[in-house]
Amino acid sequence: MEIVTDKASKTPAPELTKRIIERAFHRGLLLIAPIGMFGNVIRIAPPLVISEELADEGVRILSEVITELDNRAH
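RE: above sequence
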């Protein structure tokens, strides 16, 4: 998932990417550290045997974190 400042300019947002990863970690979701040329890409790599319940929980946590940080920006 590539994190950018806005959809139009697609400027990389490495600091926001770090905050997303840190907040997700504190809620129990381990994401692969920022990657990519600009450090603004989050890789999600669940185990092959993940249950649907755990997958849903991971998506929920990530969605909540992104929404919270987006609301603070506005």
